[in-house]
């Protein structure tokens, strides 16, 4: 009887707190992110720093339907993907725009991205606000395209699945903001 009671107690505790969390640099992100009736799992969480002084810019979490360490597997999956950023440092609108442009130069600077994405990319940059400490940006990539939220409020929706995938690839592909962040998002120990 005690064994059955202990089993029920353990089950109740698990059901009472189903979403654990992961913490990096004082920022806690949930283990699950719901999109379209599907619960995506935290694939990895990491810290983005800038300059030799290692200024902490944001903590990012990558959510996927099936956790994977393989970039191609993640990007080719038809299921949604979410990239959630929480800022540890403020940035003006022009600084945010410059980070987008830097990512574009690194990932598309040699003709890797189709010209047809340019107008949608410019719309994305125009919609991006300045950020304060504690603000969030969420990129939701689906088979339909890209939705971007600022502090959980949608700021733009772009019906361009290719651009949505390229935004994700900008963080976990060959030219990420940092190799440490890429490894962390992929769940690979550095």
Treating each run of at least 4 consecutive H or I residues as one helix, how many helices?
A: 6
Look at the structure and give the CATH class.
Alpha Beta
Beta-strand content: 25-35%
CATH topology: Chalcone isomerase
Secondary structure: helix percent: 25-40%
Number of domains: 1
Short description:
The protein is an alpha+beta fold.
Which key terms come to mind for this protein?
190 residues; alpha+beta; Chalcone isomerase; 7-stranded antiparallel beta sheet
Plain-language structure description:
With 190 residues, this protein is an alpha+beta fold. Helices cover 35% and strands 31% of the residues. It has helices at 2-16, 71-76, 93-108, 118-127, 161-172, 179-185; strands at 21-24, 27-30, 32-35, 38-50, 55-64, 81-87, 136-141, 146-150, 153-158.
Helix and strand topology:
Elements: H1 2-16, E1 21-24, E2 27-30, E3 32-35, E4 38-50, E5 55-64, H2 71-76, E6 81-87, H3 93-108, H4 118-127, E7 136-141, E8 146-150, E9 153-158, H5 161-172, H6 179-185
Antiparallel strand pairs: 1-2, 3-4, 4-5, 5-6, 6-7, 7-8, 8-9
